[in-house]
Amino acid sequence: MASEVLEYYQRGGERDRLAVGFGPLEFLRTWDILERVLPLAPATVLDVGGATGVYAEPLTRAGYRVHVLDPVASQVAVAAQRPGVTAAVADARALPVIAGRADAVLLLGPLYHLLDRADRVTAWHEAARAVRPAGVVVGAIISRFATLFDGFIQDFYRDPGYRPVVEGALADGRHRNTEPGRQWFTSAYFHHPDELQAEVADAGLTLRRRVAVEGPLWLMGHRRVEVMADAHRRELWLTMMRRVEEDPSLLGATSHLLVVAEKCRTPLVDSPT
Questions:
Q1: Which of 6, 167, 181, 252 has its CA 20 to 30 A from that of 272?
Q2: Helices 222-229 & 231-244, crossing angle to 10 degrees?
Q3: Terminal Cα distance for the chain, rounded
């Protein structure tokens, strides 16, 4: 893990992210999608890059058996304190698990911070190794264009250093934030939606769905807040998003995408780890 990424999470970058700003929008939709694509409880879920267990805890409340693996020890300590959750320090590219032990594997973070394609394919492959044949692997990715739009939403372009970061992300997907004290997201890889099928296939998985998480609503400022604050409008938004969430024309306009893949029925060889 790059030093600036580790520092970002060690200082609590993930602690409250899903509770403020765009976070509730992302969490609500991610949870809505997981409820529809995960096997029924009490399935075993391996939450790779699960951070402080923000998804692991509600999954255990829903009856799942959840084990969090994350490279940041301070986050693992928080996750391990959540009721019913077990957690350990690990790297997504070398999971300390026996092949086929999980019914589902979540990669809701690692793919952001593996800037080299080979590392991302390795993470996908390790998830495929860990899950049972015909099991589900769900990966979260950030859209190639998210940093461009986010700069206007949060006025990051006022800093002259921001535009070069955006230009770099647009050119090759690599968003590099190596200077301490910058307000924007730490170094990450931002996927183009069209990259996903080949990346997943190279890991021995079959792509089943590419799903827009927030859709364009994340761009709508105070309107987004109003929708989230009103139960009726929030439910209507969820209902309508389900109708269009896989439309290819929306995949570049969302901030995050979920990639739902399935392991082929031919078992993969266990790794020495």
A1: 6
A2: 110
A3: 19
Do residues 64 and 47 make contact, with C-beta atoms less than 8 angstroms apart? no
Structure tokens at 17: 């992210």
| Cβ pair 141, 112 in contact under 8 A | yes
| Cα–Cα distance for residue pair 100/110, rounded to 1 Å | 20
Q: Could you report the per-residue pLDDT of 12-27, keeping only the tens digit for each?
A: 766 666 655 567 888 9
Length of the chain: 273
Pairing of strands 256-263, 131-143: antiparallel
Q: What is the pTM of this model?
A: 0.91
Please report where in the chains the tokens 């209902």 appear, as a residue: 239
Rounded Cα distance between 234 and 254, Å, is 17
Do the Cβ atoms of 101 and 128 come closer than 8 Å?
no
**CB distance 19 to 116 below 8 Å:** no
What phi and psi, each to the nearest 5 degrees, are found at residue 256? Answer: -125, 150
* The CATH number of the domain covering residues in 3-262: 3.40.50.150
Q: Which residue has the tokens 């002259």?
A: 160
Each residue's pLDDT tens digit, 128-144: 999 999 999 999 999 99
The HSE-up count of residue 181 (CA atoms within 13 Å, CB side) is 2
